[in-house]
Design goal:
Elements: E1 4-7, H1 13-26, H2 35-43, H3 45-51, E2 53-59, E3 62-70, E4 84-92, H4 101-114, E5 121-126, H5 131-139, E6 143-144, E7 162-167
């Protein structure tokens, strides 16, 4: 059966939060000062769902991963400007990797952005070591925007997030 992309249901918030947290932990992506606080953010799917669209990739009854789609600047946006949507916290469970779930989630976000009147681009931030995600973004037409790279923890010099943009 194919992967289905849909909105997360409240009973999936806990499992999706754990998938997201574990994806970041297992990939060694939380090795900076405020990792515990960010880990709480990764697990708090309910908070994200109250301010943005949380989508899941599922096959049958199995959650493979999820993403937060921010349709416009607002409380969940990190870098989105007016007329831009943002993708955040893309994560796929280890057991679900290599099956197209990550790409399907990104494509769903792009489709949603295209449906928003006046939306001209989709933007996202990513860590330097997220090479599999970079390949997905580039395959789908996203381009690096180094002039928008930023540091979420200015007190730590080595945490610069790379940015990508897809012009619609």
């Amino acid at each position: 059966m194919d992967i289905v992309i849909r909105h997360a249901t409240p009973d999936e918030y806990g499992p999706l939060g754990e998938i997201t947290a574990q994806a970041y932990l297992q990939d060694g992506l939380l090795d900076f000062g405020e990792s515990d606080a960010y880990l709480d953010e990764l697990r708090n799917v309910g908070k994200r769902a109250a301010a943005a669209d949380v989508l899941v990739a599922a096959r049958n009854d199995t959650l493979l991963g999820g993403v937060t789609f921010v349709p416009s600047p607002g409380p969940m946006a990190d870098i989105a400007r007016p007329e831009e949507a943002e993708i955040r916290m893309l994560a796929v469970a280890r057991a679900g990797r290599g099956q197209g779930a990550g790409e399907a989630l990104v494509r769903a976000c792009v489709d949603r952005a295209r449906a928003i009147e006046g939306c001209r681009a989709v933007v996202l931030s990513t860590q330097r070591t997220m090479h599999a995600a970079h390949r997905i973004y580039e395959r789908l037409g996203f381009v690096r925007t180094p002039e928008r790279d930023w540091n979420p923890l200015p007190e730590l010099d080595d945490i610069t997030l790379l940015t990508y943009q897809l012009t619609l």
